[in-house]
Every structure is written in C-alpha cells, then in structure tokens.
Amino acid sequence: VCLTCCPRDVMVKINQICHKNSVKFFTGDVFGYHGYMFADLGEHEFVEEKTKVAKVSPGVEDGPDTKKAKLDSSETTMVKKRVVFCQLKEALAVDWSGEKAKAALKRTTPDYFLLQ
C-alpha cells in the first residue's frame, strides 16, 4: 500500500491494518524542498553477499601491507539476514526528553519533524 497527501491519523490507521495483515506499507509527501518517506515492510528477509577475507601469512610478503587482510573477490558467501520494521505509530511516539533520545536527536534529520 502506498499513501501520499494523507492526514497523520489516516496514515497511522492504514499502517496498523497493513501491519496486522502482513501487507507492506509506504507513505510519503513533499513540502516544497522538504519531504519524508516511511516504510513498514513488517518482517523482511533478504540475502547479502559477503566477500571472504583471506589472511596473509607472515614472511610471505615484505612491506607495510603484509599485516593487512586482503580481500579475495573470487570467494563469496551468502548471508541470510532479517529486519523487523516498526509501525508508523511507534516511529512517531518517540519520547525526546530522555538521555538516549537526546543523543539520537543529533543524528535525526529535521525533516522527521515534518510529520509532527
């Protein structure tokens, strides 16, 4: 489900319905030069390709690069990962008065507060 140009209460209500029924939810809007986008994909599983790191044995090479691990691009492994997305209601209900939230406030873009 994709929503745009909707009031906050409508977005929250539709997101709750989508989350309950395991339906992916996207919402966003633009205000001049500023905008926002929110995605609730529920439980999302994906596979990520990782390059194996080959260890360099001491004494084989000389120079400063011998201590660094080298990437062998021919060997890769597939790693399965899982991400659990939060609902829009939870994302908007952050308490900004706590110490943990104050640290997060420095990393939060001002556009987050457009939804508020």
Automatic annotation (TrEMBL):
GO terms for molecular function: ubiquitin-like modifier activating enzyme activity. SUPFAM superfamilies: Activating enzymes of the ubiquitin-like proteins. InterPro entries: Ubiquitin-activating_enz. This is SAE1 enzyme. The gene is Sae1.
